[in-house]
Write a structure and sequence with these properties.
heterodimer; A: about 1000 residues; alpha/beta; ten-stranded mixed sheet; five-stranded mixed sheet; 38 helices; 19 strands; disordered C terminus; B: about 500 residues; six-stranded antiparallel sheet; 39 strands; DUF5719 (chain B); transmembrane helix (chain B); membrane (chain B); DUF5719 family protein (chain B)
C-alpha cells in the first residue's frame, strides 16, 4: 500500500459526460456555504476521476468536500488525497457499512452546514446538479413545505441518456420500484419535482438533522437498500423527501451490478440486494401489515424462484430463496430493527401508503415478464425453424446444382419452376409433393391400423387406465399402497409422466393412454425420418432421396407393430420405440463443436433417456452398452491423455455423464426404494404386466416379441439388407458403425438374458424385448445407408442404362415391400390387441362394491390342490395401469399364503377372521375350480354363497363383512416426500436446461466487466 | 462419420486416396466381417427361456378328519313322497385301521344331521362298531381314526349292503331303472352345515332325458332328499344318472328295487357309482351263478359316439372273448351289451375264470354291470384306483354281520403280492394269507363266516382293486375302501397379476 500509486493522466473526463442537450445552468444565485459534500468511496478508481472532476465543475461551490474511503485497494485513497487534501479524506476499514461511513462523515462537516450532499464514487453530478437541488429545496421551502432531503434524477452511466431513477419506492414484493420502463430515455418526461418515498443516496441532498434524528442510514444494511430504508423511516417520522428532476447525476451502479465486488455485497450481489430489500419491507411495515407482508414475501420468493428456473437462471433463483431465508432465519435481527423504527414512527400508515408502490404493480411485472418470455420463445422457435429451413434449402440447392449440372442445358427453365415452387405456399408445395402425400396416406393407414387403441384400451401387458388422474397421482405419491395385501413397492417410473400428461389432456388417463398409443406410431415415423435424414446427411451431405427416407421411416415406425409388441399391449416397447429416434437425434448433439450445444444435448438426451427408462428400465443397460462401446472406440482412437483433458472432460464427458445420470435423479422416487427393497428385476424390466416374455435368438432375426407378430420374413429381409449393406464400399464405414451399435446393444442384451428373478408369484426373466426392436431399428438404418451408398455407386441420377437404374431401385423396392407388407398387415389382420382377461371372473356387483373402499377386497383363488393353488387379492377397481408391477413385485406375504392354504384345506373361523382383517369381503373361485376346494369353501359356516355370472365360477361372501376401515388408504412416508421433492426440483432443472437457450444470450462472465455491463440489463 | 469417404470420380485421385487410406480401409473391411459375427454370437446368447415352473406338488399331511355317508336302507319306489317314507331296519358298521384308536361320531337321521347330537362310538384295534339304524347315517372321524375310516351299510337281513363313501362333488350311476320291474330311488344327503345344491342329469337309450325338477336340487344343511326316478321320467329300463354337486358336497346312494313282472321275488341293491367318466373302467364282482344273466350298461356323456371294447378279467390276466362285438354308444345315450354267454363260457373253462370286466372306450364313458335277475340281481362295483399320493396301499371292507363273503382281487399294475388279513368283529385276526398276483391277474378268496372285516395290505405302488361279494349267492357287491392316512394340502402362492 505504501507504494505510490500512479495517478491517471488528468484527462478531460468530463468530455464523456458533457451533454449539449442539457439545459444550460442558470446563473449562480445560490450560496453553497451551507453545503458539505460527503463522498463515500470504495475501490472506485475507475470512476472517481470523473466524479471529482464533475464536483470541481459545480456551479455552486460547496463549503467543504469530505471523503470517506472504506478500505480501497485500487488507489482510490490516493486519488482523493490528491484532489481533496489528506485532511478531508477519512480512511475506514473495508467492512464498514455505508451507514457507518456516512455517520463518520457527519462528524467532519463544515461549520454551519445546513445540507449534506452525499455522493458515491460512481456517481458523477452534472455541473448544475447541486444548484438545482438547492433551488428545489428553496422552492419547496418557499411554498411552505419543509423539505428534509432532495434527490436528483439518476441517469445511466456510461450510456448517459437512459433514466435510472427519479425517486424510488418499494413494492409489496420488496422490489425496488422506479416507475420507469426498462431503458427509458430521458426526454424530460418526469421533470416535475414531487414528494417520493426515497431518493438514491447517490446525489442525495439531505439535512444533517434528519440523519441525526433518524440515526443515519441503517447499519444493518450493507449498501443496497439503505436509501429506501431511510426514506421510509423519514416518511414514518413525518419528514418530506422530494425529487428534483432538474438535477442530474450519472450513476454507474457499480455495487448493484456486481462490478465492484466488496466484502459488503459479497459474491452474490443479487442475493445481498434482495435480502436488503426484504429486510426494508419487513422492518418498516406497520404491525398490522407485517404478517401479510411476511407471507407475501415468502410465497413470492418461491414463485419468483420458479420463474427464474424456467428462464434458466438457477443461480438467481437460488439467490432469491436464500435472501428471503436469510431474513426469516434471523428473527432476532428483524425484531431489533422493528423495535428501533418504532421509536421514530409518528405518522399513521395511511400517510405513507401513497408513497409506496400500488399493490398490483408486482402482478403487472409478472405478466410483462411472462409475455416477454413467451414472445422471445416464439421468436426463438421461428429462428430455429428458419435456420433449419435455410440449411435444408442450401443443401437442396447444392444437390440440385450438382445433379443438374449436366442436364440444365437440355431443360432450360427448370430452375425457374423450382424457384416458383419454393416461393409458393406450403399448401401448394404439400399438394405437389408425392412424398408428402404418400406419407400422409401412410399416417392415415397407421391410424386405421391403430383403431383398437381409440378410446379405452387394455389387453395383454396393458392394464386398463384408471378412471381419474388422481389415481395416478396418489399412486406416484404414496409409499404404501392398498394393493393386494398392502405393498411398499414404489409406483413404476412411468406413472409420473403419465399423470402429468393426463392432467394436461382433457379426458384423463383413458384418453392419455389412447392418445399415446395412437400418436406413438406417427411420432415414431417422424422421429425416424429426422434421424435417417441426419444419418444420411452425415454420410453424404446431399442426403438421401425423400422416398428412401420415407420407406426407412415407415419401416421403423412399424417395428413395434410387426414385432407383436402392439398386439400384446406392451406399451413400454411401443412408446419406447417411438422415443428412441428422438433420443438418438438428441444424442447426436454430443458431436456438436459448440460446448454449449453439447451440454444442451446432454440435458435433452438425459430427459428423453429418462422417459425411455421410465417405460423400459432395461433400455438403460443397452444405452450404457452403446456409450461404453463409443468410449472404447474413442479411447483407442484418441488415447487416454486426450480423452481426459480438462476441456474434453467438462465439455464432452460431463454432458454424457449427465445424460446417463439424469434418469437416476429424475426417477429417484422409484429407483431408491427399488434398490432398498432389492427388487432388481424392476431395473431390467419394462412397463406392464409381469412375467416378461420369452425371447429366442431367432426372435432377434425375425424381430418377433410374441405370437401376434407379422410374418417372419419381414424382419429377416431387414437383417439380410443390413448384411448386404456391408458390401457397398461407399457407405461401408457408416454401416459398420451400425453393426457396432448392434453389437453394443446385443452384448448387454445377452447379459440381461442370463438372470432369472424369483418373485412371490413365480420366476421371471429380464425384459429383453426392447433390444429386439432396437436391433431391427439399427438394421433399418444400416439398410437405408447401404441403399444410399449403392445409388451413389451406380450413379443413378445420370442417364445410365436401365439395368443400372433397376439395380439401384431394387433395394428400395425390397425395403418398400417390407414397409408396405407391414402396413397392410397392420391395417388388416395385425390390428388387434389381445383381449383383456383381467377381472373377467369378478361379478359386476362385487366390482361395484369393492370400489367403495379398499376394505371390500375380493380374494380370487385359482388352481387345483394337486397342481398348486394361486390367489390374488383384488381391491377397488382392480389393477389399473401402473399397479400391476407393484402387485407383481410385492414380496411374499407368508401369513396370507398360510391363511389361503388353510382356507382351502382345513378352514376354520380363524381364517375368516384373518380375511376380515385383510379387508376381504368376497372369495371367487373361477371356472373350472377344483371341486374339492369348492366343496371345502362351501362347507365353511361363515361363508355365504354369492352369485356369479358364469355358472362354473363360484363366489362366496363373508357373512360378517370387514369394517370399512380394515385396510387403510395409501400413505406417504418422509423418505418418499424427500424423493418427490428431489424429483420435482430435478425435473424443473432438467426441463429448463434442456429447453431452448435463454433469450438474450448467456450469463455474463463476471471476469469481464465490460461484457457484463453491456449485457446485464437493469431490471 | 465426418471422415467418411465420399464418392469420387477422378481415377487418379481415387487411387492415391486408396493408397493413403489403405490401413483404414483394411480395418473397415475387417470390422465389416468381424462385427456381424460378434452380433450373431451375442444374439445367439440372447436366449430368454421360460423359467421352470415352481414346484406345485401338494404336501401330504396326516389326515385330520374324515366323513362317510351311509345311505338309508332305502324306501321302495312308488311312495307318494319318498322323503317322508321311513326306511326299514339295518346296521351301519364302522371301523378304522387296527393301528389307530379313537372315536367315530355317528349322526343318524334325515333331518338336521348337523344339529343332532352325534353318538360317539369308540373304534380301536381294528374292531368293528355297529349302529343299528336303517336311517341315513353320517360318520365323522377326527384325528387318528380319520385315516383308515371304513364303514358299510347293511340291511336288516345282513346280506345286501354297500360301502359308505365320503361325500362327493359329483358321481355317476348306470344301470338304474324307472320301469315297472326295476326302479331306482336316489338318496342325496348333505352332511355339512351349509346348503348344498346338485344338478341331476338322466340319460337313457335315446339320449339325455328331459326331466323336471332335477336341474337344481337344493339341500339345506344336514338334510336328506330322495328322488324316485320313476316319478321323474317316463318308464325306462336303462337309466344313467349324473349327480353334479354345484355347491357343497353330498353323500349319494341309489337303491334299485326289482319287482319281476312275473310276480317272482324281488330285491333291492345299491348301484355302483363312478366318480367320473373314463376311457378305461374295471368292473369287479360278478355275483350270482355262473350262468346268471350279465348285462353291461354303458353311458356315453360325450358328444361323440363311443366304441366300447370289453375284456374279461381272468385268473391269469385279461383276455378278450372271441365272439364279442364292440359296443357302440351314441352320444349322450345308454347302451347295453349282453355278456351272459361270454362270462359263462369263461367260467366254464376252468383255466380262464371271470372275476370282472375291463371296459375300454374311445371316449370317456361310465360303465356298470348287472348280474342275475329278480331276487338275485346285483351290480358290480367300479373298482377305481386309489389315489397314490394319499393312500398307503391298504384296502379294507367291512363284511355283513352274518353269512359268508368272497373277496375278489385284481392287480392292474405290475406284479404284487398283497397280504389279505381277515378279522372278526373285535379286531382279532382270523386269517392272514398272501395273494400273489401277476399283472392284470385276479383271484377270489373265500372269507369265512364270522369274519367282520378284510384288509388287503399292498404297497402304495401297487394298483390293487377289489370287491367283496356278500350273501350266499352274491346278493350284493361292496367296494373296498382305500385307507388314506394323508390329505393333500396344496402349495399356495400369489398369482401373477
Amino acid at each position: 500500500m505504501s507504494e505510490p500509486v500512479e495517478i491517471p493522466e488528468p484527462a478531460d473526463h468530463w468530455a464523456d459526460l458533457r451533454d449539449d442537450e442539457l439545459p444550460a445552468a442558470a446563473p449562480v444565485v445560490l450560496d453553497g456555504s451551507g453545503v458539505t459534500v460527503l463522498l463515500v468511496s470504495h475501490d472506485g478508481a475507475t470512476w472517481l476521476p470523473t466524479v471529482l472532476d464533475a464536483l470541481a465543475q459545480q456551479s455552486v461551490e460547496p463549503a467543504r468536500v469530505v471523503a470517506v474511503d472504506t478500505g480501497s485497494t485500487d488507489g482510490t485513497g490516493e486519488l482523493l488525497d490528491t484532489a481533496l487534501g489528506h485532511e478531508n479524506v477519512h480512511e475506514l476499514p473495508a467492512a464498514t457499512p455505508f451507514g457507518a461511513a456516512v455517520t463518520h462523515g457527519l462528524g467532519h462537516l463544515a461549520p454551519g452546514t445546513e445540507w449534506v450532499w452525499i455522493l458515491h464514487d460512481d456517481a458523477a453530478p452534472a455541473p448544475d446538479a447541486l444548484q438545482r437541488l438547492l433551488e428545489c429545496a428553496a422552492a419547496e421551502q418557499a411554498a411552505g413545505a419543509r423539505v428534509d432531503a432532495v434527490g436528483p434524477k439518476l441517469r445511466e452511466w456510461p450510456s448517459l441518456r437512459r433514466l435510472l431513477e427519479v425517486g424510488v419506492t418499494i413494492s409489496g414484493t420488496a422490489r425496488r420500484e422506479t416507475g420507469l420502463e426498462r431503458g427509458e430515455y430521458d426526454q424530460g418526461q418526469y421533470d416535475a419535482s414531487r414528494r417520493v418515498l426515497a431518493v438514491n443516496s447517490a446525489g442525495m441532498l439531505v439535512r444533517p438533522g434528519l440523519l441525526e434524528d433518524l440515526g443515519g442510514f441503517s447499519e444493518d444494511l450493507p449498501v443496497l437498500g439503505t436509501d429506501l430504508d431511510l426514506g421510509w423511516r423519514a416518511a414514518a417520522a413525518g419528514r418530506r423527501i422530494v425529487v428534483a428532476p432538474e438535477a442530474v447525476v450519472f450513476h454507474a451502479e457499480a455495487g448493484h451490478r456486481g462490478l465492484r465486488p466488496t466484502s459488503l455485497v459479497g459474491a452474490h450481489p443479487h442475493q445481498t440486494e434482495r435480502r436488503a430489500q426484504v429486510l426494508v419491507v419487513l422492518a418498516n411495515a406497520s404491525t398490522r401489515l407485517f404478517v401479510p407482508a411476511y407471507l407475501r414475501l415468502v410465497v413470492g420468493a418461491v414463485l419468483r424462484a420458479i420463474g427464474f428456473l424456467l428462464t434458466r437462471r438457477p443461480g438467481t433463483a437460488l439467490d432469491e430463496v436464500a435472501a428471503v431465508l436469510s431474513v426469516c432465519l434471523r428473527p432476532g435481527e428483524l425484531r431489533r430493527a422493528r423495535a428501533a423504527r418504532r421509536g421514530t414512527r409518528t405518522v399513521p400508515d395511511a400517510e405513507i401508503r401513497p408513497l409506496l408502490a400500488p399493490w398490483w404493480l408486482p402482478f403487472r411485472h409478472g405478466l410483462d415478464a411472462a409475455g416477454d418470455l413467451l414472445g422471445s420463445l416464439t421468436s426463438h422457435a421461428s429462428d430455429v425453424a428458419d435456420r433449419r429451413r435455410d440449411a435444408r434449402a442450401a443443401a437442396e440447392r447444392d444437390r440440385v446444382a450438382a445433379t443438374r449440372a449436366g442436364t440444365r442445358a437440355a431443360h432450360p427453365g427448370t430452375e425457374d419452376d423450382d424457384e416458383l415452387a419454393a416461393e409458393s405456399g406450403w399448401l401448394a408445395r404439400y399438394l405437389t409433393s408425392p412424398v408428402a402425400l404418400t406419407l400422409t396416406a401412410v399416417v392415415l393407414l397407421l391410424l386405421v391400423g391403430a383403431r383398437e387403441a381409440f378410446g379405452a384400451v387394455s389387453g395383454g401387458a396393458l392394464a386398463p387406465a384408471p378412471d381419474s388422474t388422481g389415481a395416478w397421482w396418489s399412486l406416484h405419491l404414496a409409499s404404501w399402497h392398498p394393493i393386494g395385501t398392502g405393498s411398499e413397492v414404489p409406483a413404476p417410473p412411468y406413472v409420473a409422466p403419465l399423470a402429468v400428461l393426463a392432467w394436461l389432456l382433457p379426458g384423463g388417463p383413458v384418453t392419455t393412454v389412447s392418445v399415446l398409443l395412437v400418436a406413438s406410431l406417427p411420432l415414431s415415423l417422424w422421429g425416424a425420418w429426422r434421424l435417417l435424414g441426419v444419418a444420411t446427411r452425415l454420410v453424404d451431405p446431399a442426403g438421401a432421396s425423400p422416398w428412401l427416407l420415407g420407406v426407412g421411416a415407415v419401416t421403423y415406425a412399424l417395428l413395434p407393430v410387426t414385432s407383436g409388441a402392439w398386439a400384446d399391449g406392451r406399451f413400454g416397447v411401443v412408446l419406447g420405440a417411438a422415443l428412441l429416434p428422438w433420443l438418438v437425434h438428441a444424442a447426436l448433439g454430443f458431436a456438436d463443436p459448440e460446448r454449449e450445444r453439447r451440454w444442451r444435448a446432454g440435458w435433452r438426451t438425459g430427459l428423453l433417456l429418462t422417459l425411455l427408462v421410465a417405460l423400459v428400465p432395461a433400455a438403460w443397460w443397452l444405452v450404457v452398452g452403446v456409450v461404453g462401446a463409443i468410449a472404447v472406440f474413442a479411447f483407442v482412437l484418441v488415447g487416454r491423455t486426450r480423452l481426459l483433458r480438462r476441456d474434453v472432460r467438462t465439455g464432452v464427458l460431463a454432458p454424457v455423464g449427465v445424460a446417463l445420470a439424469t434418469p437416476a435423479v429424475l426417477l429417484a422416487p422409484w429407483l431408491l426404494p427399488t434398490l432398498l427393497q432389492g427388487d432388481l428385476v424392476a431395473l431390467v424390466g419394462e412397463a406392464g404386466r409381469l412375467p416378461y416374455g420369452v425371447v429366442a435368438p431367432t426372435d432377434l432375426l425375425w424381430g418377433h416379441l410374441g405370437a401376434d407378430a407379422a410374418p417372419a420374413w419381414l424382419g429377416l429381409v431387414l437383417v439380410v439388407a443390413a448384411v448386404l449393406a456391408l458390401l457397398v464400399p461407399t457407405t461401408r464405414i457408416a454401416v459398420v458403425g451400425c453393426w457396432a451399435v448392434a453389437f453394443a446393444v446385443a452384448a448387454p442384451a445377452s447379459l440381461l438374458a442370463i438372470p432369472v428373478f424369483s418373485l412371490a408369484p413365480g420366476d421371471t426373466p429380464s425384459a429383453v424385448g426392447f433390444a429386439v426392436v432396437v436391433l431391427q431399428g439399427v438394421a433399418v438404418v444400416a439398410a437405408v445407408l447401404g441403399v444410399l451408398g449403392l445409388r451413389h455407386l451406380l450413379g443413378v441420377p445420370s442417364t445410365e442404362s436401365g439395368v443400372r437404374r433397376l439395380l439401384a431401385a431394387l433395394p428400395v423396392v425390397a425395403l418398400a415391400a417390407v414397409a408396405g407388407t407391414g402396413l397392410a398387415w397392420f391395417v388388416g389382420p395385425g390390428a388387434g390387441i389381445v383381449e383383456d382377461d383381467r377381472d373377467a371372473v369378478i361379478p359386476a356387483y362385487m366390482a361395484q362394491r369393492s370400489v367403495e373402499s379398499p376394505s371390500y377386497g375380493v380374494l380370487v383363488v385359482d388352481g387345483t390342490i394337486r397342481d398348486g393353488v394361486t390367489f390374488t387379492v383384488r381391491r377397488e377397481d382392480g389393477l389399473r395401469l401402473g399397479e400391476e408391477e407393484i402387485a407383481a413385485l410385492e414380496p411374499r406375504d407368508a401369513e396370507m399364503v398360510a391363511t389361503v392354504r388353510q382356507l382351502v384345506s382345513y378352514p376354520s373361523a380363524t381364517e375368516l377372521d384373518r380375511l376380515r382383517e385383510e379387508g376381504i369381503s368376497y372369495i371367487v373361485l373361477p371356472a373350472p375350480g377344483d371341486p374339492a376346494i369348492r366343496a371345502t369353501l362351501d362347507s365353511i359356516a361363515g361363508l355365504a354363497p354369492a352369485s356369479a355370472p358364469d355358472p362354473q365360477t363360484r363366489a362366496w361372501e363373508l357373512v360378517d363383512q370387514p369394517g370399512q376401515d380394515a385396510v387403510p388408504g395409501p400413505s406417504t412416508g418422509v423418505l418418499r416426500w424427500l424423493l418427490l421433492a428431489v424429483q420435482l426440483g430435478a425435473a424443473g432443472v432438467v426441463l429448463v436446461m434442456a429447453g431452448p437457450s435463454r433469450p438474450g444470450g448467456d450469463r455474463p462472465d463476471p471476469a469481464d466487466p465490460v461484457a457484463a455491463a453491456l449485457t446485464q440489463e437493469r431490471r | 462419420m465426418s471422415e467418411q469417404q465420399t464418392p469420387s470420380t477422378g481415377g487418379g485421385r481415387r487411387r492415391a486416396a486408396e493408397q493413403s487410406t489403405r490401413r483404414r480401409v483394411d480395418a473397415t473391411l475387417v470390422a465389416a466381417v468381424v462385427l456381424p459375427l460378434l452380433v450373431v454370437l451375442a444374439g445367439a446368447a440372447v436366449r430368454v427361456g421360460a423359467p421352470p415352473p415352481r414346484a406345485t406338488a401338494p404336501d401330504a399331511e396326516p389326515r385330520r378328519e374324515a366323513v362317510a355317508v351311509c345311505p338309508s336302507t332305502g324306501v321302495a319306489p312308488g311312495a307318494d313322497d319318498p322323503d317322508e317314507a321311513v326306511p326299514g331296519e339295518g346296521t351301519v358298521r364302522v371301523a378304522t385301521t387296527p393301528e389307530a384308536a379313537g372315536e367315530v361320531t355317528a349322526y343318524v337321521g334325515t333331518e338336521q344331521l348337523v344339529a343332532a347330537e352325534g353318538t360317539a362310538a369308540p373304534v380301536a384295534d381294528g374292531a368293528v362298531a355297529d349302529t343299528t339304524t336303517g336311517d341315513v347315517t353320517v360318520l365323522e372321524a377326527t384325528g387318528e381314526p380319520a385315516g383308515g375310516l371304513v364303514a358299510a351299510r347293511f340291511d336288516d337281513e345282513g346280506g345286501a349292503g354297500t360301502t359308505c363313501a365320503a361325500p362327493t362333488t359329483g358321481a355317476w350311476f348306470v344301470g338304474l331303472g324307472a320301469g315297472a320291474d326295476r326302479s331306482s330311488v336316489v338318496e342325496l344327503t348333505n352332511p355339512d352345515s351349509s346348503t348344498a345344491v346338485a344338478t341331476l342329469t338322466l340319460h337313457d337309450e335315446s339320449g339325455q332325458v328331459d326331466a323336471e325338477g332335477i336341474r337344481s336340487v337344493v339341500l339345506e344343511a344336514g338334510t336328506t332328499r330322495r328322488l324316485d326316478l320313476g316319478q321323474l321320467t317316463p318308464s325306462s329300463d336303462e337309466l344313467a344318472l349324473h349327480v353334479d354337486v354345484t355347491r357343497g358336497r353330498l353323500g349319494v346312494g341309489t337303491l334299485t328295487t326289482t319287482e319281476p313282472l312275473d310276480g317272482g321275488e324281488g330285491t333291492g341293491y345299491w348301484a355302483a357309482s363312478a366318480a367320473a367318466p373314463t376311457t378305461g373302467t374295471t368292473l369287479l364282482g360278478l355275483g350270482g351263478e355262473d350262468d346268471a344273466a350279465r348285462t353291461l350298461v354303458v353311458a356315453n356323456p360325450d358328444e361323440t359316439t363311443a366304441q366300447v371294447r370289453v375284456e374279461l378279467l381272468g385268473d391269469a390276466g385279461l383276455f378278450t372273448p372271441t365272439d364279442l362285438d364292440e359296443l357302440t354308444v351314441e352320444p349322450g345315450a345308454v347302451a347295453t351289451l349282453d355278456l351272459t354267454g361270454v362270462v359263462q363260457a369263461a367260467r366254464a373253462d376252468g383255466a380262464q375264470g371271470a372275476a370282472g370286466v375291463r371296459v375300454t372306450a374311445s371316449v370317456p364313458v361310465v360303465a356298470g354291470l348287472r348280474s342275475g335277475s329278480g331276487a338275485d340281481e346285483s351290480a358290480a362295483v367300479v373298482a377305481e384306483p386309489a389315489p397314490r399320493d394319499v393312500a398307503d396301499g391298504t384296502l379294507s371292507a367291512l363284511l355283513p354281520p352274518a353269512g359268508a363273503s368272497r373277496l375278489v382281487l385284481t392287480n392292474a399294475g405290475g406284479e404284487a403280492a398283497p397280504e389279505v388279513v381277515v378279522r372278526d368283529a373285535d379286531g382279532a385276526e382270523l386269517a392272514r394269507v398272501e395273494a400273489p398276483l401277476a399283472t392284470e391277474a385276479s383271484t377270489t378268496i373265500a372269507l369265512a363266516d364270522g369274519a367282520a372285516r378284510v384288509d388287503v395290505l399292498g404297497s402304495a405302488d401297487d394298483d390293487l382293486r377289489g370287491a367283496v361279494l356278500t350273501g350266499p349267492g352274491g346278493t350284493s357287491v361292496l367296494a373296498l375302501t382305500a385307507a388314506t392316512p394323508s390329505d393333500l394340502v396344496p402349495t399356495v402362492r400369489r398369482a401373477w397379476p
